[in-house]
Structure formats: C-alpha cells, structure tokens
Amino acid sequence: MAKLSTQSYKGARDFYPEDKRLQNYIFNTWKKVCEQYGYEEYTAPVLEPIELYTSKTSDEIVNEQTYSFTDRGGRTVVMRPEMTPSVSRMVAARRQELAYPIRWYSIPDCWRYERPQRGRNRQFWQLNVDIFGIGTVDADLEIISLANAIMKQFGATDEMFQIKVNSRKLINLIMSQYLELDANQAKQMVRLFDKKDKLKPEDFAEQAKVIFKDDQQKSGLEKLRILLNAQSLADLPEILRDSQAVKEVQVLFTLLGEHEVTAATFDITLMRGFDYYTDIVFEVFDLDPENNRSMFGGGRYDGLVGAFGVDPIATVGFGMGDAPIENFLESHNLLPKLQSTTDLYAITIGDTLKEAQDIVRQLRLAGVNVAIDLTDRKPDKQIKAALKMGVPNLLFIGEEELKHQKFIVRNVESQKEDTLSVEEIAKNVSTT
Amino acid sequence: MAKLSTQSYKGARDFYPEDKRLQNYIFNTWKKVCEQYGYEEYTAPVLEPIELYTSKTSDEIVNEQTYSFTDRGGRTVVMRPEMTPSVSRMVAARRQELAYPIRWYSIPDCWRYERPQRGRNRQFWQLNVDIFGIGTVDADLEIISLANAIMKQFGATDEMFQIKVNSRKLINLIMSQYLELDANQAKQMVRLFDKKDKLKPEDFAEQAKVIFKDDQQKSGLEKLRILLNAQSLADLPEILRDSQAVKEVQVLFTLLGEHEVTAATFDITLMRGFDYYTDIVFEVFDLDPENNRSMFGGGRYDGLVGAFGVDPIATVGFGMGDAPIENFLESHNLLPKLQSTTDLYAITIGDTLKEAQDIVRQLRLAGVNVAIDLTDRKPDKQIKAALKMGVPNLLFIGEEELKHQKFIVRNVESQKEDTLSVEEIAKNVSTT
After folding, report:
1. What is the pTM of this model?
2. Which terminus, N or C, of chain A has the lesser number of Cβ atoms within 10 Å?
C-alpha cells in the first residue's frame, strides 16, 4: 500500500481535542446567548441544489467560490457557502404551519473555495441567527442586541468592538434622490462605498468622480463630501434627514440606547456584500488598531422566503464565523483557560489495574469523568501522559490505598493533595 | 425569478427545532457517556482526498456510494463515508507528540449515496469512539463497556438489545485450519456468514456447499453444522477451543461479566463489513422481533494508522449512527418528552411592549431563556404561538402587573399559575 498523506484537505482544519475545546467554548457561548433570547436550534444538509444560490448569494461566491458537483443521480449540488438560503427554504416549506415570530439559530459548517489565510478557511463554521415574521424595528433591535450580548458574553467591552449600522433604504435614497444616479451608476457607487476603508481619500475621490456623468461631477463630489463628513444622523443633508428611512434609523438608535447597546454607531458607508438585504444592515468591527476590520454582520432581508413562491416574510438575521471571533478573542486576551473534559486521570501503582477499574467504575456512576491509564508503565510516565492531555486532577491507586479505600487526589494546578474516599472524590472533583 | 423548490436534498433531512431537540438529546447522551469514560472530542473536515478510502473502506462504499468530485484546484475529493480513516490520519500525523492511550470521540456527519429508506439516509451522523495505544484486551473491554453504557444511558434494558462478540483471529483460524479453505474460498465463506441471518437454513447450506471443493463438501458441511450449533465458546470443536484466539475471547467475556456488561454474547457468525478489523469485533442488535437487526458495531483495527507510513498503533473503536438509535428509542418507547430550550414566553397584554422588553431583559440577565411576542395581536393568539413552539411556561405582562411588579407565570403542562416578582421568576423557572 502506498504511503498516505496525513494532511487535512487544504484550507480545512483538523480539530484535535485542544482545538475542539476552543471551538466548543465558542459554540457553547453562541448557544447560551441565543437560547437566552428564546432562539431554538435547527440545521439543514450541507448539500443543496445549485439553484438555491444563483442570483441570491453574491455572484463572486456562486461563480468562483462554490464547491459544486454533479451527484450520482445527475443533480448539480453545492456545498453551502452560507446558510441564509437554506433557512429561507425551510421556512418557506412550512410557512403555514409554523408559529410566529420564528426565532431560529444554527451553527453549520460552510464551504467557499478561497485562498486560505488568517481568519479565512475554506471550511468555516458560522452562527446563523434569524427572526421571521416581525416587520417592525423591534426585530432589528433584538437581533443587534443579541449580537451585542454575544460579544459581551465573550468578555468584550465597548473599547474592543463597534457595531456600525446603516439602512439600505437610506442608501437607495442617497443614490437616487441625493446623488441623482441611475441604477448602473448606483451599483458602482455602492461598490465603491463598500471598499472605502481600504482606499486613500484621494483614490476614493478619483474613483467616485468617474462614476458621475460629466455634468454631475462637480456638484456630485461636493454632495459626497458633505455626506461622508456626517458623523451622525443629525449631520445628514436636510433632504435625507426628513426621510422615512432616516426616521426609522433614528428610532432604532433610541431603542438601542435604552437597551444599553452602547457599541452601536451610525455609518453611512456601511454596505454589506449580499444582494438580499432590504433595510437595516449592521456590521461588527474589531477596534484593535492592528486588526481593525469587519468580523461579522447582518440585517433585514424581507424578500428571500418569497423566492420560493410563497408570500414573503419579514426577516432579520446575522451570520458570525468562527475564525474572526477566535482571532478577536486571541488579540484581546479574552481566551479562557480551557481544560480537558476529563476530570480525573487514574494512575495505577503496582499490579492494581483490576481493582482500579472497579474504583473508576464507581466514580463514573457518581458522575465523574475519569480516564484510567491502561499501560503497565511507571507512575511518572502515567502522570506525564495525564499532564499532556490537560486533565486537571490525578488519582493514585496503589495497594495501600485500596486496603484503606482512601485515595490521593492531586490537583494539577494547585499541586494540592487530598486523601479521599470514592464518595468524597465524587463530591469534590465534580465541583472543581 | 423562477420559483425555487423548498425540498431538502434527497436522502438528507432538514432538522426543524423539534427534530433538532431529539438529535441534540441523542448527541448529548453520547457526549455524556464518552466524557464519563475520559474520551475527548475532536473533529475533521467532511472533505478528504479519495486515496484515504481506496482499499481500506469496503469496495462497495468507495466504488458505488461515495460523493466524490474534483475541486477547483484539480484535487479528487470525497465527502467522508465514515470517520475511521480520518481519525487514523490525525493520529498518524502527530504520532510522536500525542500522549497515550489516546481516547477520542467525534460526532461527524457522513455521506453515502444509497437508496434512502427507514433508518438509512444519505447524510447521517455517527458517533465515533476510539482508543489508541492499548494492545491488550482491556481496550476491547473498555470500548464494549462504553457502548453498553450508552445503551443503558438511553434507558435500554438487556431485554431490548444484545451485544454480539466475535474474533477476526478466530474466524481466520476457522477458515484456514478448521474448514481448510484457501484465501479465495475463505473470502466467499466470510461473506456468506455475514448474510446468514437473512437466509433460510437450506439456502445457507446450498450456498455453503458450492464454496467447498468437491472433495471437501461432505466433511465441510458437517464441520459447518457443528460450528454453527455452538452456542458458546465451550461448544466449539476442540481444535478451535484450545487456540490462543478463543482463549482471548474467553478472557474478554470474563471481564465483561465482572463489568456487568450482561448483554454481551458470543456469536461465531458475526463478521463486520469493513476490511480493516484485525481481532475482536462486536455488533449491537435490537432484540425487538419487529426490528431485529444490527444497530452499530466496531472492533479492533491495529493496522490503519500504519498505512500512513508510521509504526502501527493498536486501536479499538466503534461507530454508532443516529438513525438506527432513533428507531430503537422509538420502537422501545424510550423517547423522552423534549421541550423547547426556551423556558418562558412573554405575552404582552395591552400596550406594554416597551416595559415588557425591560422585564425580559432582566430575566435574561438572571439566566432565564425568554422569548417575547413582538406582534400586536390578542393574548390568546400569542398563547397559541407559544404552545405551538413547545415553550413550557407563559409569562403575562399587562399594565396591572407592571404597576405591582408581580407577574402571572403559567406552567403549560400543569396549568398551575403563580404570581411572582422578576426575582422569584428567575429562581423558579430556571429550575423547572
């Protein structure tokens, strides 16, 4: 047999137990906050028909980044690049039977064929949170509050992150009414706004200039200058300030203030890649100057369920990837010390395996997670293995201990030792 | 936009919250028992290079059932049909650094292109449990005990399931020494043994007959008769009874008895589809006469890690799919009543949403999972939605309640109502 490679598929990670502990910490934090807000878990298959993504997900993703292939039955399928089309499909399938508002979350793995780099893998996990059936700002408030609560649950403070909020309705108004652009120009301008943070001001102006028609250029650039100087809703030009769109954003910010979402700030340049957003959009940014970038975001997309031939349903949601949050936790020193799920490692001294197995069995029945060393090696080698595995407590089982039914338990971190009965171990260790 | 189908990919299920609750119950039971035994969670990407499966997984799976395709970089990849090759790869990659014995578990989704039917989907989840580095029977004992403990944790009793145990070493001995078959004959006979339960005795004999060479037939069939009548190790023909293989199985059964794994029984006809098993194999059967079949199994496969060009490592493990256990729990009435993870559904009476939001926020901070109805509809409609979602408690928030800061909480099942402060709700509801 030829020697096989031990590498994982390019851009996809193996999760050894120490990696999985961290992933589980992130997943469990996500779950905890979502469930606090009354969201329930769902999931869908990683394979979906390609039609689900065509003209809904961004063109770049569908044409260049999908994992698509033909199955043995001739169906063209895709490994999902995102979850939103799947959840819309599920809601559409049971539109009549479901109770509203629907509050759902999921932590699917998604696949995109991109160049792997820090914070971006081909396989990634993404928390998806959505509320269906609420057309009022209360849903936007809840979703942004939930995103904020997740950041707080991870230990983040307002100095570490910012939630930029904008409105697609307002953007449309700016493009058509304020800048007086046609559909094609508007599309280019939105794209330019989207990459504004990556451009020097002079390059931005240069690129903006050519989007305008000749007779628009002068006034257009001046309008842009005024617009981009707006630090808050109050700074917007009057024609926008009096619009319904701005009033709705204003209401949202008042509510966010009441709900103590103090990291939220208005940003007129915030776009969002996906085409399906229809109103409020938001994006959460890392404020670390060395890593200042968008971590995740979402918004309202009222049209997607309707694409399945049923009446549309008001929807607000967001997606939050595992890699960006892992980087954030690392760079802000928010990673907790994670231990093995095994509470106790049983070390046999001398020929005690048979009796030790019995002690271990009693401990498990009492709810303690116990591994037992099954090798015949010297105790110090057994200890070394336990330490490498990150097990927090060691249990020593020798003949003397068995005679008295009292065993030494050593806490690895404090090096404190106690001599305890099986009952006492069960009581002590499961609470450490 | 053309109307899109709302169906999930054929043979793969959508998990709506009520389905996901059951899946989570199964996953959490698996996790709990594995962690009690000191096993730690890991995972690997669902995509693997096709070479990983060639000549290790069964030919049927690789040639006819894999989801394989070429990625945008020209690599031929497979959506894993099973986890064992991946975990062997991961162990081989860090063979030197890892601490032994390695005890790992994972709950990956796997994909096989088969005809979907009850208990068999194209996408399925499979608990994988493996111990690496122990060549003695203690590892077989531990893995079989763990499988037994999972069944017990699900509420199963010995009348409901049976653990059939056999030995590949013993099978090899039977084929070569006892039945005196050559390699090719042996392969056919193993396949025939494997499907014995599905054949009438006369058909089995007929098919066995043609495997023997003409001059072997009479004595061969007689030997087969003796062999298949063996109800226990003691009934085996003497030439087998004195072998090392049988002695090892005997030791295992003595230990299983001491560890109260009373569902274990010897079965000389138990094979196991995969080619990589090298010694003890076992399979867990549903004893329900209407559903009497193999649910899951495993065994020792000492050679797989070595296929990656490193020294081999003794390994014992098993895989347990979600669908067979779900069917088992259903048919034996072992499914628990599963509720929503949302503890409380807040129902607003009159124009109280703003104040209600504040109460809900306090409850969440106190650790209660609360959903709030954001519609303006009548309370009875709100109640109906909460019941449909399976939320166990209702919280009523009207103007009178807000004035006194005392709220009615109704338990849906008992219909009992209490009038409580926010603090009291937090104390009462999170313990129900």
Report:
1. 0.94
2. N
